[in-house]
Amino acid sequence: MKWPALGYLRASSLDELWRALGEGAQILAGGQTLLATLAFRLSEPGTLVDITRIPELRGISVAGGVLRVGALTRHAELGRDALVARHAPLLTQAVPHIAHPAIRNRGTIGGSLAYADPAAELPACAVALDATLVLARAGGERRVKATEFFTGLLTTALEPGEIIAAVEFPLAGPSQRTVILEVARRSGDYAMTGLAAVLDLGADGRIASPRLTFFGVGEGPVLAARANAALEGRALDATAIAAAQAALDADLDPPADLHGPPAMKRHLCRVLLGRALQSFTPATEQAA
Amino acid sequence: MNDMPTPASIGLSREDLPNSYIGRSVPRPNLPKLVQGRATYTDDVVLPRMLHAAFLRSPHAHARIAAIRTEAALAVPGVVRVFTGADLAKVCDPWVAVLDHLKGMKSAPQHPLPLERATWQGEAVVAVLADTRAAAEDGVAALEVDWDPLPAQTDMETALDAGTVVIHPELGDNLVFTRTATKGDVDAAFAAAHKVVEATFVTGRHTGVTLEPRSIIADYNRADGTLTVHQATQAPHMMQTVYAKHLRMEEGQVRVICKDVGGSFGIKVHVYPDEVAVAAVARILGRPVKFIADRFESFASDIHARDHRIKARMAVEADGTIIGFDVDDLTGIGPYSVYPRTSAMEGNQVVNLVGGPYDFAHYRCTTRVVLQNKAPTCQYRAVGHPIATAVTEGLMEMAARELGMDPIELRRRNMIRDDAYPFTSPPGMRFEGLSHHASLDKLLEMVPVARIRADQEAQRKRGVYRGLGFAAFIELTNPSPFMYGIGGARISAQDGCTVRMDPDGSVVASSGVTEQGQGTEAILAQIVAHGVGVPVERVKIITGDTLNTPYGGGTWACRGAGIGGEAALQSALALKAQILEVAGAMLQAAPESLDIVMGHITDRATGAERMSLHELGRIVYFRGDTLPRDLPRELVQTRHFITKEYPFAFTNGIQACWAEVDTDTGMVKLLEHWVVEDCGRVVNPLLVDEQVRGGVVQGLGGALYEHCVYDERGNLLTTTMADYLVPMSAEMPDIHVGHVETPTKESLLGAKGAGEAGTAGAPGALMNAINDALAPLGAHVLEQPFTPARILAALGRF
Ligand SMILES: Cc1cc2nc3c(=O)[nH]c(=O)nc-3n(C[C@H](O)[C@H](O)[C@H](O)COP(=O)(O)OP(=O)(O)OC[C@H]3O[C@@H](n4cnc5c(N)ncnc54)[C@H](O)[C@@H]3O)c2cc1C
User: Fold this and answer.
1) Same domain, yes or no, for A24 and A117?
2) What is the ipTM of this complex?
């Protein structure tokens, strides 16, 4: 299908943006989701307001004990940034799973979080890393935890006239372990089921602050509260993994989709949980 | 054709000649144009006063059209006219897609736009014409249609039940066609058999996804009463007939042009009601009308294929000898048989092809072809072959397991002997010459079976499940009029080629076969260059224009090289003979003492150059006064070719697939794939190998990913490339291709088809590989596509 007729406006500063954001206006970032929905005629905005030239929304920096990633950071930039690799390695690990190179060259972290696809990697990583979103509007800014930002299927805490300006990630400590695993039909596809796993593994082999976050299995990222509780303070071993797998079922309420029934998704989540935690066990233990 | 000249008798075996192109990997001359974006697809054609069509498509699988209100649509800026089924019926007659030789076949009359009822979701119902496609879509959005939804018949298993929804009440029931082939005494033979293996196979409804969607521009010119149609089609002459017949014109008043076509796979060889609607609208408006299907429309209205459920049994002796097959095939084809080739062919092919590679005595195979409220199905690459092959080869592997026999040994024991030809198969297919044993031997040279089996053992101990699967197959190519012509369809089995030499010594060949990206023009150029004796760069090929090419069938069912290629070779040889006669007169030499090599007349004995074709052309065209008065001098020759001895030239081959199944996730990883096929003379090894690889990928796609999924109410759930998964390069294995060459004796060229071999065997080979991997776990899958959900369910994992 062809796009509906619409206006296009490029803002080169936040001030220009606030003036442009009115009735029927929609923000255009990388366009990798929005332009497809226009071609499906799923949305018919009056005007697209292009934010990609707004300098305030760019850049990656470390300040005040957090890693700040500007909303316009492209997936490809995120994947090759040294600060990200050092302070939030889960994001570096996640990028190769997002779509294909051409899409990663354009898609932005702000767009991914704002769209809130339940099968997308970055929303799950934001929850797993306990990130904070910096939301800006004309005349102000507020901070919202990722766990509170995603409110339902493709819905977020963004108010009309508000945008994501940046995302702040706590800096990874030396005992942090992260992995992202997914089952996707083809490389680059949205995951049938995915897991972004973050935890601290002490010198004593005990787990602290586990944040296993599943995606593709609910209305948004699913922080597996019961499975995480089952792991907290335990030594990372087969019994801990089994306990988390047993607890996991109550954390999940996956819908049926084209890939299969809810029972299959639950099964895949258990498999991913097992594989993720296995990957944190010392090599010697794995071999034994 | 009994005293046919052999290649040697006319010097074709001189493979060391510089212009000996047959059998060489000549790069495709049209490739730079395609990759540089300089091709001319139908959508690139822009005509003055052209309008764009968009269609309102039925949101329901089955519904009565109660009312259509067009006022709001007509008020949309840019919208010019709106047409309903009733409007078009005034200028366009409906069609009924049956063939006389498919006994008892029935289907309902189909109009370009339906008059009363929509019978599948996605059927075009109203056409909106506007200055741009976007405006036409705005117009569609403004149409108001009142629908009375009707119950839909979607499950083929219940299509023939009493009390079911009969889609076309005037037909009495939903049975379109049934045929049973029998040979021997199946009941008695099975009762006495050592072992009978049986299974129910399901092949998933899928479609051929072309890069270029269906595209058409129809232009009716009132000044001269002609209809010119630019169309992405495989069969321009067939379409010429269709437009003429249904728009009440003479065939000679209709011209069909297809320039570059971006893939076809059989999808573009059918008559689509929305495309006929475009032609009817152009006829009414006297203006060019363009319609380019978008991806939604492609998924909902391109033909689908392979929606079959097959219950099959095979009986064997204790030593593995096959006693026979007993097969019941059921297929749902949508609400209409597709015009003019019909939707009964696929089921009919299953009946013709099951058990194909093997020598056995007892056979019973029935197909029942039934109606459903889903998109129509019809011929897609390797029609029926992947189904028949998966059934046959699935049963072979089951029998091998039951008998404790090596699956390769079981096949070797039963394959038709290489010296047994001519051979007639139990369903009556006649084979001129196949090479099953030679192909199997060649495959075993390529596949390191012992190493693979050792690896399989070792990996199993680590909980990694890998499997090796085989699939032997036969493929029907070079069809004669027995395919369509005898059934009353005006689809030419004959093809022609006109070859001419221009004054500069360059050669132009126009052919009735067509190019859709597979390289038809490349092999025609090779054959003509070879036949005339000129560098291949000096040959230009014209295809895809009913006004400028000899009448022919186009490219489908693997006939481009075998039929079109032979016509090209014969016309090229005739032109060469004609040139040599002229040269003989000029050089005072006997024509037999001369030859043409790389654009030069040479002395056959010494190879000495006597004269360039350029010089010969100058004299013929500009100084004809210097030639003997009665010398025939037309440097243009036309030849036609049709097969005469056999209804089809069968080919054969065998594939092997090595795959790994993740038994926790149900994901299948393709590790390696091998194909040996025998397409007779290989004209261009590079192109044949790529045809085979592309075919394998499409076969693997259907077996692993591609699926047109409908819900029980007939709603299509897979309408984007995100839901309908095509195979991508990252998931594809290395595909090794080997050849055995058994040329057909029906032609000098000896070429058979190669385009469908890959697709025919790949799904069966993959199914067998998966089931070999799962065997130690007591699980197997027989329903395509083999999705993670199906594999995990078979393993009892959820
Ligand atoms: C073929 C394909 C495959 C894909 N596969 C994956 C995948 O596997 N995993 C994955 O995660 N994603 C995938 N994507 C989506 C891709 O990552 C998108 O780029 C991303 O989701 C959206 O980012 P964008 O910058 O392109 O946003 P846009 O498309 O420009 O916008 C998306 C939405 O977010 C809004 N928006 C954008 N920026 C902001 C902002 N700063 N503040 C507020 N609202 C904003 C827009 O108004 C719009 O509603 C895929 C896309 C395609 C086309």
Assistant:
1) no
2) 0.96
